[in-house]
Design a protein that fits this description.
The complex is a heterodimer of chains A (280) and B (201).
Chain A (H helix, E strand, L loop, with lengths): L5 E2 L23 E12 L2 E8 L10 E7 L5 E7 L10 E7 L7 H6 L6 E8 L13 E6 L3 H14 L5 E7 L8 H7 L6 E7 L16 H9 L1 H4 L12 E7 H13 L7 E6 L4
Parallel strand pairs in A: 8-9, 8-11, 9-10, 11-12
Antiparallel strand pairs in A: 1-12, 2-3, 2-7, 3-6, 4-5, 4-7
Chain B lengths: L22 E2 L20 E5 L5 E6 H5 L4 E8 L4 E12 H8 L7 E6 L4 E5 L9 E6 L2 E2 L9 E3 L12 E7 L6 H4 L18
Parallel strand pairs in B: 1-5, 2-11
Antiparallel strand pairs in B: 2-3, 4-5, 5-8, 6-7, 6-11, 8-9, 8-10
Classes of the chains: A alpha/beta (280), B mainly beta (201).
Chain lengths: 280, 201
């Protein structure tokens, strides 16, 4: 098992549009961020609200690098996805960190970090796994485990600036207790006819659970895509059968979900992926 | 700056130095921004192109496999912070490709291009004199599709995003131009020992 770690890549597909260039490319230099708040999301996921020295301009789906330095000078760096939505002029970002028991950095976050601590960070980083309102929808977000984190940023961005874009989240988790942002997700579809959340619990289901209880497969994706007909009633800018697809999770999860999308005839140009460990 | 309460939990001490900010990885993480490409060998070809896109050489899979083979034993370093030691790659060096194509005076930069549309830029110097190869075997086995097979570029002294998966060809350029990740802010050169991860590093 490796650290929750974003693998952004040695092989990729060009995004349909050229990279977004509201800023010069590349992240900021290392800067100090102050931990403002620690939120316990689940028994092994915590969100760290960081206050940056400078306003943070980022695109939903991007990540930050964190660098820890030991007294002897030894350093460890990891990447963590931003969970919050971009907000003009805001100095705050939320990073959600999943605990990997034999990891090096995530146990530090879970066991040591508290409000008031200073952390070295740089960002934002990441290109193709991003979404802006001008890209439209429908949006089909497929998350496995802590792969939900960048999808949460995309959903929050949609809610803030483009609520008419139909969006469906398919979230595969081991059990109900493993759902990160559960309250927020439960409230997402309230009064929002264009958004829906579907769960699949792969190891343990609540009693009488009527939903999915297996790994993501092509038939599950197909059933979800069929829902875009209903979700898209108010906005038919794009063929509801051809959503923009974002898949994030462990490598095996992403490989099988991306292959399932291809088997359904979704073009590669509509499928964006982000993989993280455990490693193959 | 020392981070309060952090002492490091090094999993194991590297047998030799690894670049700054990297950790040892025993597995082989998969790194791709989209679905894995699956290129059938009978539809695979590899091309060398000149600065105006003119063809300098093209090989089918069988033709490519008849080119001289070279094996390298090396460490690899990914910009996402992992390093993997003692990897073995077999393939055709860029030197042998240039000889086969009769190219004696290549332009100073290359753009590697891949099935699926990925690109990455490198100085020609960094792929010649044994520094780069088009590999089709990893640790004695055909390279799996998720790791870039049938063939990928391997330039182990640079961050591994420069080692393009599903390689389809190499185009020479008179000037350096950013490839896929480079346009998103990743470093134009990517020396892991200088920690050239992003623009400005």
């Amino acid at each position: 098992m490796t650290e929750h770690q974003i693998h952004s890549g040695a092989g990729a597909h060009p995004a349909p549009q050229s990279p977004i260039r509201s800023n010069p490319p590349g992240p900021s230099p290392w800067q100090l961020a102050t931990v403002e708040r620690v939120t316990v999301e689940t028994y092994r996921a915590r969100t760290f609200t960081l206050h940056l020295a400078n306003p943070s301009s980022f695109i939903a789906g991007q990540h930050y690098d964190v660098r820890l330095t030991a007294p002897d000078g030894y350093q460890a760096q990891r990447s963590y996805s931003i969970a919050s939505a971009p907000a003009a002029g805001s100095n705050r970002i939320d990073l959600t960190v999943e605990l990997i028991e034999d990891g090096e950095v995530s146990p530090y976050f879970h066991e040591v970090v508290q409000p008031g601590d200073a952390l070295e960070v740089r960002g934002p980083i990441g290109g193709p796994f991003t979404w802006t309102a001008r890209m439209g929808g429908p949006l089909f977000l497929v998350g496995g485990g802590s792969g939900i984190v960048p999808l949460r940023s995309i959903l929050a961005q949609r809610q803030a600036v483009a609520p008419s874009v139909p969006a469906l989240l398919l979230y595969s988790a081991r059990s109900q207790q493993d759902i990160i942002y559960r309250d927020w997700l439960d409230g997402l579809a309230d009064g929002d006819a264009g958004a829906a959340v579907r769960y699949s619990f792969t190891r343990q289901q609540p009693a009488g659970w009527p939903g999915y209880a297996r790994r993501v497969d092509a038939s599950m994706l197909k059933e979800c895509i069929a829902e875009f007909g209903r979700l898209s009633e108010g906005d038919i800018a794009r063929d509801p059968a051809l959503p923009l697809c974002y898949v994030c999770g462990p490598t095996g999860f992403v490989e099988s979900a991306a292959d399932a999308f291809l088997s359904l005839g979704i073009p590669e140009s509509l499928i964006r992926t982000e993989r993280f460990g455990p490693t193959s | 700056m020392t981070t309060r309460g952090f002492f490091g939990r090094r999993r194991e001490t590297p047998p030799r130095p690894i670049p700054p900010g990297q950790y040892l990885e025993r597995g082989f993480p998969v790194l791709t921004a989209g679905p894995t490409q699956r290129v059938p060998l009978d539809q695979w070809s590899f091309a060398l192109a000149g600065v105006n896109g003119e063809p300098l050489g093209e090989w089918s899979w069988e033709e490519f496999r008849s080119l001289p083979e070279t094996e390298i034993f090396t460490d690899i370093h990914c910009v996402t912070k992992w390093s993997k030691l003692d990897t073995t790659w077999k393939g055709v060096t860029i030197d042998d490709l240039l000889v086969a194509a009769g190219v004696t005076d290549p332009a100073p930069y290359i753009m590697a291009f891949s099935y699926g549309g990925y690109t990455t830029n490198l100085p020609t110097w960094d792929v010649v004199q044994g520094r780069g190869m088009v590999a089709y075997e990893f640790d004695g086995q055909p390279i799996a599709p998720e790791h870039g097979g049938p063939a990928r570029l391997v330039v182990p002294h640079l961050y591994f995003w420069k080692s393009a998966k599903w390689l389809r060809g190499i185009r020479f350029m008179p000037q350096d131009q950013p490839g896929f990740w480079e346009q998103y802010g990743y470093h134009m050169y990517g020396d892991p020992w200088k920690e050239q991860r992003y623009w400005g590093d």
